[in-house]
Amino acid sequence: MYTKLDYRTGCKAMLQFSISCDGEWTVSKHIIDHNHAFCAIGQRHLLKSHRGVDREYLEFIMLMKESGTKVSYVHRMLQKQAGGVSALGFTKRDAYNVLESERSKTFDGTDSNTLIGIFKKRAEVECDFFFDFELVDGILTCFFWRDGQMRSDYERFGDLVVHDTTYRTNKYDMICGPFIGMNHHCKNIMFGCGFILNERVESFVWLFQTFLKSMGGKHPISFMTDQSFSMATAIKSVFPGARHRLCTWHIDENSKKHIMHLRKKINFVSLFDYVVKRCDTVAEFDFYWNELNTVYECSDNTWLKRLYSHKEKWCPAFSKDYFSGGVLSSQRSESTNRSISRRLTKTATLCDFYKMFCDVVDEWRLDENGHDFRCSGGTIEMVLLQDTLLTHARDVYTLEIFKVFQEQYLKGMSHFFKLISQNCHDYVYHVWLNGVDMIRHSVTFNRHDNTVTCTCKMFSEVGIFCRHILRIYNVHCVKCIPQVYILSRWTKAAILPNVNLSVTHGTDIMSGKILEDSVWRVQMTRKFNSVLSASAGFPEARRVCDQGYESIKHFLDAQRDASVVDESASRTILDPPRSRSKGQRNTRKRSIVEKQCKIVKAHRSKSQNVASNSKAVAQSVVQDTVNFMVPQGYVLAHPIGGMTSLMHVSGSPQVFAPYFMQSNALNQMQN
């Protein structure tokens, strides 16, 4: 068992002074005899009286620790810089102790007051910083904040908002709800962050109304969340015009709890996955849902019935007319929570979270700045060098969006197409991938103005042309994307120059600019080092440096004392009650099923394989039904022109295979 060592020996050795009225010190008593051996010269720096961590070292260690560097590594670096631990003046254990002592200062009931104080200071300095909070009996129950850059980002990319509330801080068990979007590089972007104390409807209404007020009343097109009755009620009240979408990942996880007996049946998981995520039209969804109930005899299942009653919120086929960027999961927001939770301890406070939140947003903005630089200065190589349509897309879109566009274009080249009807300038085609697509998509194209629509509705949902449209554009030799089909949010024009990328934690105003503490520290260190180097050989210059140091130190001590008095006088906001259970982590609780089932990684290639496999299996399950319902010589096609059911279309031999010569194809169609 570990016990703390006792170094006390009862030594009576002492030195006593008396001070006269004139300030003269006189030795009045001296006991020279010690009852212990003297410390060796090589161990003198280990004495408690000889050890101490200066404030400058403490702030540097805290900065490095917040950046993800281990304290032991920081101490090792400082030790080498000082020329050894004896010259440094403190041990590694001292560094840990002083950090813990500094953290304990936040446990005196001032966490909420300190955080709101930070918000107030930022609002005084930043012209477009917004925050709001609510108190109940003096206790902080909910708050929200965003900076000016988040408002600007929302103006450009606020058509999609992802909101997740599965993250909680441990100390107060408050619910964190970041508002996440997707920028022109398909990367995460932050619109703001809020905390609420409970999941009542009133709490969500306050949070959403505050968010809406901070954004000037602009509503999103799609609002994606996890499944929650309180949240759904609040969204319907605050964002009546927004399309509320449910996270399909949570639906898949919940299915493991409620219909595990069905998931064990052959091919059920693939068919269920296709129904939930892959259907392009309502008619296709109805067809596959009926087949799911028929084949697996689950039409009376309570959970599936309840799921079906909310189909408009989770099935993509019902939301194709609303922009969502192709996002099916709120894991964009959950990835934010994971980024923050990895850096926080189990006893994280609100101020701890705020600092980590600012660091994450800083990293996102630096990453976006790097992508902007690559887009503005670099040109990506095209697979088809002389293709004018691809060239135009490369000039207009950001690199990530062009990659998606080029991928759709190349996939479209392997699709078959067939002219179904022609009326003046309007052409209607069926486009499908032979041997893969059981149900064909219909593309309507106007040769006069190049307007086009497709039954898959990828453009209205994602804002990028699908492979079916690009196949027909290739057939008709369309050389550029019509301006009406170019979404500004995906273009290089969405890049804003001269954007302040830094999120301000604690700020100082110098020459009209807001500089980070760390940047200011580096600049001032260089200046002082220059002065010290120049003063080393001049006694008078040394005296001036000493006087300047004492003057600055007295000024800072006076300012620090005044700020402590002001803070204690204005301390009116109380921390939320602590409700952390022993051992609870600062991430959302995971079910036993989720722990046992590995989540499919979100790599594009793997997700495409999953989608392709689920489609193939789903079609194999319903193949017998299709053979029975579709007459010989006919094929299935998605409905057009307001129809609500899958169509039986005659399969004539006038079909154009991939890479067919376009001139011959057009001649045959016109004849």
Automatic annotation (TrEMBL):
Residues 567-591 are annotated as: Disordered. Residues 579-590 have a biased composition (Basic residues). PROSITE patterns: ZF_SWIM. Keywords: Metal-binding, Zinc, Zinc-finger. This is SWIM-type domain-containing protein. It comes from Cuscuta europaea. Residues 439-477 form the SWIM-type domain. GO terms for molecular function: zinc ion binding.
